[in-house]
């Protein structure tokens, strides 16, 4: 997979995830807004219904006063209608609507307003007097077109008188006298319950002068953005307006109510984002590892080619009859073959180390050995190489309990790799310190050098497979970035730990800790 394709996939995946998150956010916000608007509509409808009930109560009260007069409790003179149809005797019984309508009917008949003959007048008067109530008068069967006109005129006069009485009452009576607070609270409670609004609320009544004439104990006028405002008695014809304000101490939280959907949706979205990021990282790492592997194979091919060609050339010299085979020549040719064979064997060992990583298991063959003996054997073999560079190895094997179960082949390779790195990255004359001691029911193996050292940034990655620490101007250091990764894996498979300390131009120290476990009856204890 090319880098360009990986980049395109990464961008498309990022855009898709951002778009999905954006759409879900919009959906949540839209759903929240709709629920808030629905709640506001329910509250507004409930308050409208309450105001409508208050208006109907007031009209019913005034109508009851009009049709159930109490002469001993007459209204003030400014509230009494002044009708041109009434004489003084009729005004004494002003609130008797039945007599008022009868009087008006007789007056119109006597004035000849309706074009009726004597028989029709007598018959109509007899029928009307038998049904003088408003409901009765409304059911009178019309005897002629004039009857319908008379009925409409009487009804218009009645409506006009009621409106005049109602408006006079409204203009004179303050709002606190027109509303019963107990009834208002009952209406609010009933309407909110009917609309499915079970939340606590507070309210206040504000008169036309902006004065608060009533408010509940916990009403807070500062919550301007949470107040619901409605005009009381919107049918009043005068311009003075009275209002009721309501605010809820508790309101529904649409986001909280939607958590049952929001949390799973957000969780799955985060999982998708996380998996997408992991996938992209794995793809990028795999791409990098593929490139490193290709480089490794190319380098290994060249590394194999050199010793193979050298051995091939030496063998041809042995077969060539023209070459004089003196003891010195034979010794030289055999030495070349031996050195190149060791070199080739070393490269094969590197390939085998790589195979260990690919399989995931090192396949350890454990047995009880003396760690001090293994380390002493490796340092002795390495001593010649160090002394050829005029260096030295200082060995202090102080561990008293040194018997432990390890794979001696792999563990020998671990010590060899660490010593080989110390020589590769030397500065001047190499000086190596190898030391062992017991600690916390285990054994510690320390290998220290006076080489180039490793920077803190590179120190974090030295155990990564195929990673090589930059060597700057040192060009004779060869490798594939597998040595320390192999060391770390073998130590981990043995249940041990490895740590490193390093300082540039001072040196590096590796400490290996292995638990003192031995084999007994085929089991490591």
Would you give an account of this structure?
- This protein is an alpha+beta fold.
- 56% of the residues lie in helices and 14% in strands.
- It has 15 helices and 13 strands.
- It has a five-stranded mixed sheet, with helices on one face.
Order of helices and strands: HHHHHHHHEEEEHHHEHEEHEEHHEEEE
Tally the beta strands.
Answer: 13
Question: Which descriptor suits the 3D outline?
Answer: elongated
Radius of gyration: 54 Å
- Strand content is 5-15%
Q: Main sheet?
A: 5 strands, mixed
Number of helices: 15
Keywords:
525 residues, alpha+beta, elongated, 5-stranded mixed β-sheet, 4-stranded antiparallel β-sheet, 15 helices, 13 strands, single chain
Ordered list of secondary-structure elements with their pairings:
Elements: H1 3-67, H2 88-91, H3 97-110, H4 118-130, H5 134-138, H6 145-172, H7 175-178, H8 181-194, E1 201-206, E2 212-215, E3 228-232, E4 242-248, H9 254-257, H10 259-319, H11 327-359, E5 367-370, H12 371-388, E6 392-397, E7 403-406, H13 408-424, E8 431-438, E9 442-448, H14 456-459, H15 483-493, E10 497-503, E11 507-515, E12 519-520, E13 523-524
Parallel strand pairs: 6-8
Antiparallel strand pairs: 1-2, 1-4, 3-4, 5-7, 8-9, 9-11, 10-11, 12-13
Helix pairs in contact: 1-8, 1-10, 3-4, 10-11, 12-13, 13-15
């Amino acid at each position: 997979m090319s880098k360009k394709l990986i980049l395109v996939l990464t961008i498309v995946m990022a855009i898709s995830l951002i778009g999905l998150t954006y759409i879900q956010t919009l959906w949540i916000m839209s759903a929240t807004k709709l629920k808030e608007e629905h709640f506001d509509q329910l509250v507004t409808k409930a308050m409208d219904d309450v105001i409508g009930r208050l208006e109907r109560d007031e009209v019913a009260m005034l109508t009851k006063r009009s049709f159930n007069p109490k002469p001993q409790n007459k209204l003030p003179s400014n509230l009494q209608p002044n009708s041109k149809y009434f004489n003084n005797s009729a005004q004494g019984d002003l609130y008797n609507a039945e007599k008022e309508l009868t009087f008006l009917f007789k007056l119109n008949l006597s004035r000849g307003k309706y074009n009726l003959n004597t028989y029709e007048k007598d018959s109509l008067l007899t029928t009307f007097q038998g049904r003088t109530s408003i409901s009765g008068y409304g059911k009178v069967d019309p005897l002629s077109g004039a009857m319908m006109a008379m009925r409409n005129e009487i009804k218009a006069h009645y409506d006009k008188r009621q409106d005049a009485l109602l408006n006079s009452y409204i203009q004179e009576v303050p709002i606190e006298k027109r509303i019963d607070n107990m009834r208002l609270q009952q209406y609010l409670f009933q309407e909110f319950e009917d609309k499915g609004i079970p939340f606590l609320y507070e309210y206040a009544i504000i008169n036309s002068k902006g004065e608060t004439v009533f408010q509940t104990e916990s009403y807070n006028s500062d919550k301007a953005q949470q107040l619901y405002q409605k005009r009381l008695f919107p049918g009043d014809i005068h311009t003075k307006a009275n209002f009721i304000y309501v605010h809820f101490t508790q309101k529904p939280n649409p986001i909280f109510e939607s958590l049952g959907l929001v949390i799973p949706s957000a969780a799955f979205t985060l999982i998708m984002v996380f998996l997408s990021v992991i996938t992209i990282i794995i793809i990028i790492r795999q791409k990098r590892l593929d490139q490193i592997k290709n480089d490794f194979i190319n380098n290994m091919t060249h590394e194999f080619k050199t010793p193979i060609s050298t051995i091939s050339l030496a063998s041809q010299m042995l077969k060539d009859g023209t070459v004089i085979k003196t003891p010195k020549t034979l010794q030289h040719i055999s030495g070349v073959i031996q050195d190149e064979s060791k070199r080739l064997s070393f490269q094969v060992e590197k390939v085998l180390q790589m195979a260990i990583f690919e399989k995931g298991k090192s396949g350890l063959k454990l047995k009880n050995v003396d760690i001090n003996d293994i380390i002493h054997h490796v340092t002795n073999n390495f001593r010649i190489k160090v002394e050829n560079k005029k260096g030295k190895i200082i060995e202090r094997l102080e561990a008293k309990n040194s018997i432990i179960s390890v794979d001696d082949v792999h563990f020998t390779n671990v010590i060899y790799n660490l010593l080989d790195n110390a020589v590769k990255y030397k500065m001047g004359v190499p000086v190596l310190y190898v030391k062992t001691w017991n600690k916390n029911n285990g054994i510690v193996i320390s290998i220290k050098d006076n080489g180039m050292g490793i920077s803190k940034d590179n120190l974090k990655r030295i155990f990564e497979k195929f990673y090589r620490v930059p060597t700057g101007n040192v060009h004779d250091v060869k490798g594939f970035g597998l040595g320390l990764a192999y060391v770390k894996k073998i130590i981990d498979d043995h249940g041990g730990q490895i740590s490193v300390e390093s300082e540039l131009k001072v040196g590096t120290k590796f400490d290996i800790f292995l638990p003192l476990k031995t084999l007994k009856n085929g089991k490591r204890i």
